Amino acid sequence: MAKAKEITGLDCAADALEWAATVLRVRFDEVMELRGAALDFSDIEGVHAMRVATRRLRSALRDFLPLMKKRPLRRVRKNLKVIADSLGAVRDQDVAILALEHLQAAGEIDQINEQIKAGIEKLLDERRAARETAQTNLIQTLGIDRLTKLRANFTAALNKAVRKNKQTRIVSFNEAGREAVADSLQELCDLGASVYEPFNVERLHEMRIAAKRLRYAVELFTACWGESIAPFAVEIAQMQSFLGEVHDCDVWLENLSVRMRKHQNGGVTGSERQAAVWLLLEFIKNRTKNYRASLKLWSEWEANDFTGRMQAIINH
Question: Which pTM was predicted?
Answer without folding.
Answer: 0.90
